Structure formats: structure tokens, C-alpha cells
Amino acid sequence: MHFLRHSQLRRDTLLLLAVQGFYRLTGFVILLVLSRRLTTTDIGAYFFAIAFAETAIVLANFSLNPVMMRRVAAGPAQASTYLHPLLGFRLLSSPVYLLCVFIATITFTSASWQVMMAAALFTLLEDISFSFGVFFLALRKAIYNVIIGASVQIVYLTAFLVGMSRAPSLEVALGANLLRSLCFLGASAWVAHRRLCPLRVSWDSRLVKAGAPFLLTTFLIALREQTGTLLLGVLTDYDSVSRYGLAYRVVSTAIFIPTAVYAALSPLLVAQGLSGQNRRTLTRAIGLLAGLGLLAMGVVFLCAGPLTAVLYGSLADTVAPLLRPLTLLFPLSFLSLFLSSTLQALYQEARVVRAFIVVTVTNVLANCALIPYFGAYGAAYAQILSTLLLLGILSGYLWKLFKQPVASVSPLPGP
After folding, report:
1. HSE (CB half, 13 Å, CA atoms) of 285?
2. Which of 45, 71, 207, 331 could link 293 by a cystine bridge, Cβ 3.0 to 4.6 Å?
3. Would residue 217 be called left, alpha or beta, if left means φ above 0 and alpha means ψ between -120 and 50 degrees?
4. What are phi and psi of 57, to 5 degrees?
5. In 3D, which of 227, 237, 203 has the Cα closest to residue 86?
6. Which residues of the chain register pLDDT less than 70?
């Protein structure tokens, strides 16, 4: 049984890495086309709208996916009873999210409300489909994520390339993303309904209460990630947003690596805690991610010029110098993202919240201080500083847990 468990863990990790790698490779194709077919102003507006929508998405999901993951992983026989209340909540929260984005757009930004609402809609639909993806992972059905993800991404890439070749515009780019999110949601819901459990809608106030700590954490994570883009859009112009967004996308593209490793490991951590075997697995995973992060940093730093020339064409001269300092984020982000997710799986969300409060405040202050003087470089420096601080705090928390006595299985809190 022990051998089978870890054989499945390795298989799930490889499957998730494969499909996420495919996403990122196709993502580079998207960036290549955008940088050659749209103006820098349109690219900046595109990045700003997505950053705004992703920061506010917690209003729609209330970070309930980790709660569902815990409950389903601990009691897979009752999986449907944990999914149905989540669907009921999303039915009520989605219109509220869209209304809040619309009000915030016309009140606090000068951006086009049509662009902002299109980004909000496809972000919302994709986020709901992500809930089904978490449900599949909790039931150790990673193969569903792989098949759905690869199939939909092919459809999306085809639609995007055809559309941008015939009528290149910001509207076509947004429309292709909307098609992608609709396909993701439709396919995920159909598979869940036909293969796992009939889909119904119910309500459980305990689910919402249990998600409160994760809500704050998710909001702080999104805010820290998007602060540079948002403040550049407010304090400078969309050209700066475009330069920073294009450079940062090269780094953020690789985040699928720690995400896939954690996704495969999380059901074991939720169900068994820091058992002896899980400690050894965690240690190996941390070492692997550190090594891959350093390798990615070195390769991208040395190849920043040729890489951006291939991806961004004539924009490479302004993007490559900004990308080089951002390569520090490869090892820092790999480890900080993995450690924050691991600590939440180990029921340490209160500590993670405290860490992100400190880091987010630091990030906002650093951006406000540096962007007026250094522009897009100021946003890069602020992101590096805050990520380094986050990694230091989270490493201390995990070290304290490792110093505690080993238990074969950690007790699970009640639902």
C-alpha cells in the first residue's frame, strides 16, 4: 500500500507537470502573438484588466476550495456533500463579484469598463472550473485535470491564433479567453456530473465560516502578486504596465512547477499531516524546487536577450533589462508558494495569514516608494524584496513544525 501510494503520487505529479508545462508553452505562443499584433497600450490594458479581476476574485470564491479539498480528501465517500454547498455559494457570489468589479471600475479607474468586465467574466468562469479541478485532485483523479486541460487549451490556442491572424485586436484576445473559460467550465462540470456525482446546489453556512482564514490569505496573495501591475497603471502609464507585464509573465509562467508538486502532495498532507514519510517527501520536494528555481534563474538571466527577442520582437530591448533582475523570483517564488500552500494543508493558515499581512504591507509601501523613481524597475525590486521576506517567514514556521515530534498520522480537525 505504501509503495502504491507513492507510485500514484509520482504519477500525479508528472501528469500535472506535463499539462501545466503545456499550458505555459502555449502561453508563450500567446505572448509572442500579443507582442507583435497589439500596441503596447493595448497590452498594458489587457494586463491591467486581468490583474484587477484576479485581485477581486476572492469576492466570488471566498477561498473555499482549500476547505473543500480538506473535507473531500478526509472523507471521499461523502465527496458530493462537500461539493454541492460550494456550488450553491458560487451561484450567489458570482453576480456580486461582477457588480463589484463594475462599480470599482467606473469609480476608481479610467479603464474601459467593457474590457474590465470581459476580463472579470472569463476570470470568474475559469475560477469556478478551478473548483472542479480541486475536487478532482482531492479524489486523486488528476487524469481528469490533464485531459480537460490539454483539450481545452488546444481549442483556445486555435481560436486565438485564427482570430488574431484575421482581425488582431484586444477584443479578439478577450473573446478567445472567454471561449476558453466557457469550455473549461462546461467540460469540468460534465465530467464531474457523469463520472463522479450528480451535480446539485445546496447551502451550508459552516462552509463559508471555515473559509474565512483562507479568504484573507488568498486576497493578500493576489494583492501582493498584482500590486506592481496595479500601481504602475495608477502611478505611470500602460506602456510601463506592458513592459513589466511582459517581463513578469516569463517568470510567473514557471509557477506551475511548485503548483503541480503541491497539488499532487496535498491530499497526503491533509489526511496524514507531517508523518515521517511525508517529512521526507517534503524535504525532497523543497530541494527539488530550490534546484529547479536556481537553474531557471541562471538560464533565463543568461538568455534574457535572445529569449525576449523570440517572444517579443521589437519590444525585446525594453523588456530584457527588466527581466534580468526578475529572474531572482524563480527560486524565491518556487519555494515561497510551495511553503505557503504546504502550511495551509497542515492547518497553519493563521500563521500564513500573519506572514502575508506583513509581506503585503511591505510590498505596497515598497512599490509606492520605488515606482515614482524607478518606474517598472521599482515594481520589480519591490516584488523581489517582498518575496524574499515571505520566504524567510514561512521557512521559520515550517522549521518549527519539523522540530515537533513525528506522528504517524496527524489528527484532522472536524469539518
Report:
1. 28
2. 331
3. alpha
4. -65, -20
5. 203
6. 1-10, 12-13, 16, 211-217, 264, 267, 270-271, 406-415
